[in-house]
Structures are given as structure tokens and as C-alpha cells.
Design brief:
The complex is a heterodimer. By secondary structure, chain A is mainly α. Helix content of chain A is 41%, strand content 8%. Chain A has a two-stranded antiparallel sheet. A two-stranded antiparallel sheet of chain A has the order 3-4. In chain A, strands 5-8 form a two-stranded antiparallel sheet. In chain A, helix 7 packs across helix 12 and helix 8 crosses helix 10. The longest helix of chain A has 32 residues. The N and C termini of chain A lie far apart (65 Å). Chain B has one domain: Rossmann fold. Helices cover 32% and strands 23% of the residues of chain B. In chain B, the strands form 2 sheets. In chain B, strands 1, 2, 3, 4, 7, 8, 9, 10, 11 and 12 form a 10-stranded mixed β-sheet that branches. In chain B, strands 5-6 form a two-stranded antiparallel sheet. In chain B, strand 8 and strand 9 form a beta hairpin. Chain B starts with a helix and ends with a strand. About 3% of the residues of chain B have low confidence. Classes of the chains: A mainly alpha, B alpha/beta. At the A-B interface, helix 8 and helix 22 of A face helix 5 and helix 7 of B.
Chain lengths: 499, 293
């Protein structure tokens, strides 16, 4: 593999991506300065869908606007120089034997896909995160690969304890280093790990048919950048294969399906430039011409996308009322509708959550909320002094609240189940929930009552109740409730009744 | 032992202090040492010295566990966790006595990383040779026979069980279920499993664990105490600065004395009363010798 400038850039960005991914975690600081959300903030697809869905602009997406402008000037360079998923494909594609390209994938399919997603966003249903390449990659890492790596190391470390006992301490320094800088603090298994892996491996599988198959024929971000790149003032010359050589067809990963270079697929990797035996290739400023035949997301595509963008998301719209009350969103999220318009389903909030309170929802709010974060208090609660999820959220779907505001942000409301709660159900003292309640004035309080227990003995019982004005629904009470069958205190989401 | 050695030993023990010799007879009263001052390193040292000095507890080559309360994600000023300067001074004393290794850990209720970090204890002990502040590891808990009144067995932390010396350093604070949380309850930090379970019979459960795992030295941190909304606190309104430390080898006596700081009577705290009934120490302060350091 020759190290061209684009390849070096790809590797640097991939390394940066992985480093940022690992640092998207609690490492002793309440604030995260840089996180992997940088890749989303510079993502024009996220920007465009956000604008369409919410009708507002947010400054956190300014880098995306810059990338938008740069892509108009330079073309689709993001795909050839930055995109970590593209880099991974470039790194593995040499090992995958190719058959013929899939006919049904070529053509305008990707524009129908992009158009559908964008029109759906315009009709207030933002599904872009499902297929955004960066989101897809982070989900595969967060939900599958990273926990697996953590689990493997952890099991190895536990195994060593079985072998060496306390002598394992001699190795503790090395493991501690890994634990502090590389591995997850605890190994959490996520729902939808399988689906995340499946989407990722499907993209790898597509490499069987042609190089950068996903990038060329499906990726909605790539398609959008291709549309912008079509207006690039830099033109690649010659604009077609030379009659005496034609090697570019071999060198070019994306844009030489036919004799003529497809500008919207040119990822500016400059491989053709570097490899040309005759030094004929150049990229020069030139006024863009009227769209040629290779570029034809014409009226039909737009109209079809408009229709499918309007209709298809309705397939995702069904919600079961009984699951709504368990749909607890991260702190600071005010309404589910607004949240879903902004969430890119990248999984960063779930990656960063120190108590592993957040999990991707599968069907709780219907298909529409697939992969969006929800709190499952029995598995993890929202840590009172932590406000990391709002900091790493690339779009502000989870607002970046100052700590003092986050402490008051309402996630839900805790409710006692007196059929299970020990002082009520079994006349035993407990109060574990009250003990853990982090609100300085305590949102769980109690009455002291003298009663006779079931054996006839007089007991002084402390019976807990919720002070509703103070409860934020952080979920620690549900998390620590020692009742084994089910938590005797549970957090419910506020679900407004329409009638 | 030669006669000369025996005489030497008797002589040196006599020199070490009058009450120390008395302590050799089992019937002698429990001693509670109390120190007060704004220099927390100094009062830590003096409270230990008042009990006969650290060498009475820690011998050269010993592995010492110093178990603070760093169970909550709170900064030291909120009085939910043991003061880091007290911890540092204890660790220094142990090293001076020749401890091979000083281990500091707790099983926190909040996120372990945040609780450790914000307690300020890891930072205070950073850079000290042979002192470690490590996260507790699941595989090091071992089902241990207790044969107690309510707990027949429970998962306890092996590093706490195998240490030569166990020093318990709780902070004195309010607790709604138990009234106060002091030394008897500090032992919960070496318990694994579903700890909330023991709340239903916490007095006897704690006595069961404390009977099985001896705390050789108790130093109760009352440099500041949490008077309400414990054990989590979170508001400075509930914090009272006392600049005091209480030390003893008798956890019931230490707890009984600390209870007075809250204006309560020792017998009002069921955990202390039960611990006394179970033979873990003296609750009646009139039978305890209080030494001001």
C-alpha cells in the first residue's frame, strides 16, 4: 500500500476518530473538552437534516456548515480524506475478492434514499441517523466491539486471578494502565448490539461486489457530498479515460464506472494523479458545466422522494402507549418529538454515561426511536453530579446543561409499588432508596409509624413516600431497591394524555 | 525467652506508658482518644499517639487496610466522605511504623470512579510509595462463613480479610434508617452482593460482620459532621465543622462517644446498642476512659 497524502490523512483521521472514541468517557473530569462528536458537528448530512426537521440552526453545527462550503469548493474530499468508515473499507477491501457490481444498486438508488431521508426530515421525522456512516460506525463500536474488547480483557484478568491469586498484583500496573486509558470501566452489554454489528458487516459484505460499494451507491452522507461536489470549481482533467491507457479505471476507487469520470463520485483521493504514468492528470479550477447525464437526480427522483419521504416514515410512527411510560429520555430532554428530530442515534451519550444508565431503545417508542437513548434505571441510574451526555451530544438533542441546571432536569417521576415495598408489603424496615436519594433535601421522605408486624411484634416502621416537587427521576432508587423480584420503586416518564 | 529478654520487655512496656500495661489485662476499661484542632494531619497523629502510637497496631512488614468512607460522589466539604488529609496522615503513620503496603478502598454507592475522585482521597495519597488506592474488583469478593444471627454467609472482600491490620476510618454522619452511620456501619464497605438486603435487620447484620472481621483501630472523622439528610447530604447547611477526631480499639465505645457530638444518647442508635449486646464493645461512656490528645 503506497502512502499517498490522502492515505496519510485517512489514517490520521481514523486514529483521531478512535482516540476520540475512547476518550468519550468519564476520566476523572466533569467536563469533556474534545469528544468524538466533532465528527458529527462537521457532518453536513446531520446539519441539513437538523435544519429541515427543526427549522432552526444551532451553532454547535457550525463546523458542518463549513464542511458544506468546503465540499462545494473542493468536492467530495471528505470521503477520500477523512471518513473513518471509508478508511476502514479501503483497508480491508484488498482482502475481499470481487464479483461483478450489483446492477440494482447503481444508478439513482442512493438519491432516492437520500431524498427520502431528507424529505422525511422536512416532514418532521428525522431518520438520518439510522444510515449516517459515522453514526453507524460508532454504534457498531459502542454497542458491540468496545464492550467485547473490555469483556475479553476483563475475563483474561479474572482468569489470571484464578491462576495467580494475589500474585496477580505484580501485573496490576500494566492492567491499570489499560483500564485507565483504553478499556471501558465496566463491560456493558447493549440491546441491538446484533443489529449494529449486522449493519456494519453488511457494509463490509458489499465490498464483495465492488470497491467502496457503500460509499458509491448507498451512503446518504456521501451522496449529499457528491451533490455538493458536483459544483466543485476543481475539475479533474482529463475528464475521461485516455484511449491509450485507461489505467484510471483500475486506480480509481469510485468514479470511473464508465469512460467518463463521474464527478459526484470522485472522492478526491488523487490516486489517479499519483499513479499516472504520463503525468497527465491534474485538478484545476474550472467553471462547472451544466449537469451531464451521470448526474441526474432529476424531477422524478425528487417527486418520488417527496412521496416516499412523506409516506414511509408513517410506517415507523406506531407507538404502544404501555411502553411510553418507560421511555425515559436523558436529562434535559424536554419533549420526545423535539428530541427525535435532533437525535442522530450515534450512541455517544450511551458510551459516555458513567453509570451505564442509557441504552438504545429498540421498540419502546415504535420503530421511529430505534437506537435512540433511554434510561433503564434498573440497570443504571443518572449520576447526580454528572452532565456528560449533554456535552457529547453532537446536535444538542440532549441539551448541554450547566451542572446546577442538570441536577434539576426532570427525567421522570419515581412511584412506589406498595405491593412490593418492604415497609408496606412485609412490615420490614428498608429505606435503601431514601438513603441513596441524591437530592440534598431528599425527594424520598418517610413517615414513622408504629405497627404490629405479622409475627405480632410491635415495630417502628419508616414508610417512604415521594416528594414529587423534588424528584427528578434520576432512577437511583429503582437501581438500588433491594427487592429481588422487581423494583418496588420505579421511574415513569411523563406521558401527556391527549384526551 | 531468656530471663534477660523477659526483663527487658517488661521494662520497655512500663516505659511505654502506664495505661498501656493495664491494657494487657482484659478487664481494663476501653479507651477513647479525642483530639481537636484545625491541622488535620497533626490531630490525626496525636489521636493515634494518645492510644499508644501507631506501632502498637502496625508492625514492620504488615499489610494494612485503611478503610475510609468514600462511598458517595461528593466533595470533602459536604461531609459525606472521610477527609483526605486524615487519610494521608494515617497512611504516613503506617509507613513510618514499617508497613509493607497500605491499601485504601471502599465499595461506593455512587459511581466508583466519581466517588473515589471527588472524595479527594486518591489525590491526597498520590505519589506515596507503597500506598495504593484501588477500585475493588468483583473477583476478589469471597463468600465467607459468618454464622451470625441473621447472616450465615456473605461476600466479603478478601484483601480486607487477609490484611494484618484493618483500620476503619468512617466519617460521623446522619442516616435516616439507623440514626447515625459510624464505625459499626463502615464495615459495609467490604461487603459485596445485594447490600441493601441487610437493611431489614441491619443492627444484627452489621454485628455479624463486625464479629467476623475485626477492626483493629477505629478513627472516626468528625472534622466535620453531617447533621441531617445523610448519608448523602449535599448541602453545606447540614454540615457542622467540629475539627475533631475520635480513636479507639473499641468500635462501640468510639461510636458511643461520637453519638454525643450529635446531641444523641448512644443507646438511641440501635446499631450501637446491638453491637454492645453482642459483645463488640462498651456502650456506657461512664465505663470508658476518655483521653484528650
Amino acid at each position: 500500500m503506497k502512502l499517498t497524502s490522502s492515505r496519510i490523512s485517512q489514517l490520521v483521521f481514523l486514529a483521531a476518530f478512535l482516540v476520540l472514541f475512547v476518550t468519550t468517557d468519564y476520566r476523572g473530569q466533569d467536563d469533556i473538552s474534545v469528544a468524538v462528536n466533532s465528527f458529527f458537528r462537521a457532518n453536513p448530512l446531520v446539519l441539513v437534516s437538523f435544519l429541515l426537521a427543526t427549522g432552526t440552526f444551532t451553532w454547535v453545527l457550525l463546523p458542518g456548515l463549513l464542511m458544506f462550503v468546503f465540499s462545494i469548493i473542493l468536492g467530495r474530499f471528505f470521503c477520500g480524506w477523512i471518513c473513518p468508515l471509508g478508511t476502514i473499507l479501503d483497508l480491508v477491501t484488498g482482502k475481499i475478492r470481487k464479483t461483478a457490481p450489483l446492477a440494482w444498486l447503481t444508478g439513482n438508488f442512493k438519491y432516492y434514499l437520500l431524498g427520502t431521508l431528507l424529505f422525511a426530515a422536512l416532514f418532521r421525522m428525522n431518520l438520518v441517523g439510522l444510515l449516517d456512516p459515522i453514526a453507524l460506525l460508532i454504534r457498531a463500536l459502542t454497542f458491540f466491539f468496545y464492550p467485547l474488547v473490555g469483556y475479553a480483557f476483563r475475563q483474561g484478568w479474572v482468569g489470571l486471578y484464578g491462576l495467580l491469586g494475589d500474585n496477580r498484583d505484580y501485573l496490576a500496573g500494566g492492567y491499570g494502565f489499560l483500564k485507565n486509558y483504553l478499556l471501558p470501566f465496566r463491560e456493558t452489554f447493549y440491546p441491538l448490539a446484533f443489529l449494529s454489528l449486522l449493519l456494519f458487516t453488511a457494509i463490509l459484505f458489499l465490498e464483495r461486489y465492488e470497491r467502496r460499494n457503500w460509499c458509491k451507491n448507498l451512503c446518504p452522507l456521501g451522496s449529499l457530498l457528491g451533490l455538493l461536489g458536483h459544483f466543485s470549481i476543481f475539475k479533474r482533467l482529463p475528464s475521461r479515460l485516455c484511449s491509450d491507457c485507461g489505467d484510471c479505471k483500475e486506480h480509481c476507487p469510485t468514479a470511473f464506472d464508465s469512460e467518463i469520470l463521474q464527478k459526484s463520485n470522485c472522492i478526491r483521493c488523487l490516486d489517479c494523479y499519483a499513479k499516472c504514468r504520463f503525468k497527465r492528470v491534474s485538478f484545476r479550477p474550472a467553471m462547472p458545466k451544466k449537469p451531464g447525464h451521470a448526474f441526474s437526480p432529476a424531477r422524478r427522483v425528487i417527486l418520488t422522494s417527496l412521496a416516499s419521504g412523506f409516506l414511509l416514515p408513517r410506517l415507523f410512527a406506531f407507538r404502544l402507549p404501555s411502553t411510553q411510560s418507560s421511555l425515559l429520555r436523558p436529562p434535559g430532554v424536554s419533549g420526545d418529538d423535539d428530541f427525535l428530530k435532533k437525535c442522530v442515534r450515534c450512541g455517544e451519550c450511551m458510551k459516555v454515561c458513567p453509570r451505564n444508565a442509557l441504552y438504545p431503545s429498540s421498540l419502546q417508542a415504535g420503530l421511529y426511536s430505534l437506537f435512540t437513548p433511554m434510561v433503564i434505571p434498573r440497570l443504571g441510574y443518572c449520576e447526580y453530579n454528572c452532565h456528560l451526555c449533554g456535552q457529547v451530544c453532537p446536535t444538542g438533542a440532549i441539551p448541554n446543561l450547566p451542572l446546577e441546571e442538570k441536577k434539576k432536569a426532570i427525567i421522570g417521576l419515581a412511584v412506589f409499588d406498595k405491593n412490593h415495598c418492604l415497609p408496606y408489603a412485609k412490615r420490614l424496615n428498608c429505606m435503601v432508596c431514601e438513603e441513596h436519594c441524591p437530592i440534598p433535601e431528599k425527594a424520598i421522605r418517610f413517615e414513622t409509624v408504629e405497627e404490629t408486624d405479622y409475627s405480632g411484634k410491635k415495630v417502628v416502621l419508616k414508610k417512604p413516600y415521594i416528594e414529587e416537587k423534588l424528584c427528578t427521576g434520576c432512577g437511583i432508587c429503582e437501581y438500588v431497591c433491594p427487592v429481588e423480584e422487581k423494583a418496588a420503586v420505579e421511574v415513569f416518564a411523563h406521558t401527556p394524555r391527549k384526551r | 525467652m531468656k530471663r534477660r529478654d523477659f526483663l527487658k520487655m517488661c521494662g520497655s512496656s512500663l516505659l511505654a506508658g502506664n495505661w498501656l500495661v493495664k491494657d494487657l489485662w482484659a478487664k481494663e476499661p476501653s479507651v477513647v482518644a479525642v483530639s481537636e484542632g484545625k491541622d488535620y494531619a497533626q490531630i490525626t497523629k496525636s489521636v493515634i499517639d494518645a492510644l499508644g502510637g501507631i506501632k502498637r497496631f502496625v508492625k514492620a512488614g504488615d499489610i494494612v487496610v485503611v478503610k475510609p468512607n468514600m462511598g458517595w460522589d461528593r466533595k470533602p466539604e459536604f461531609a459525606a466522605t472521610t477527609h483526605p488529609l486524615v487519610m494521608r496522615a494515617i497512611a504516613e503513620e503506617c509507613l513510618k511504623a514499617g508497613a509493607k503496603r497500605v491499601k485504601v478502598f471502599d465499595n461506593p454507592c455512587n459511581d466508583p470512579r466519581r466517588s473515589y475522585e471527588n472524595s479527594g482521597i486518591p489525590a491526597a495519597l498520590k505519589g506515596m510509595d507503597n500506598v495504593e488506592v484501588k477500585q475493588m474488583e468483583e473477583e476478589r469478593y469471597k463468600k465467607t462463613k459468618l454464622n451470625g444471627v441473621v447472616l450465615k454467609e456473605w461476600e466479603l472482600y478478601t484483601e480486607a480479610l487477609s490484611a494484618n491490620v484493618f483500620i476503619s476510618v468512617p466519617i460521623a454522619k446522619h442516616h435516616s434508617l439507623t440514626g447515625l452511620t459510624l464505625a459499626c456501619k463502615n464495615i459495609m464497605g467490604i461487603m459485596g452482593g445485594n447490600r441493601g438486603y441487610i437493611h431489614r435487620e441491619i443492627e444484627d447484620a452489621l454485628a455479624d460482620v463486625n464479629s467476623a472481621v475485626k477492626s483493629h483501630l477505629i478513627i472516626i472523622d468528625a472534622t466535620r459532621i453531617l447533621t441531617n439528610h445523610g448519608p448523602t447530604g449535599g448541602s453545606l447547611r447540614d454540615v457542622k465543622v467540629l475539627n475533631k477526631l475520635i480513636a479507639s480499639t473499641d468500635m462501640v465505645a468510639a461510636d458511643a462517644y461520637a453519638t454525643g457530638l450529635f446531641g444523641l444518647k448512644p443507646a438511641e442508635i440501635a446499631i450501637t446498642a446491638t453491637a454492645h449486646k453482642r459483645g463488640l464493645g462498651e456502650i456506657d461512656l461512664s465505663k470508658v476512659k476518655v483521653v484528650k490528645a
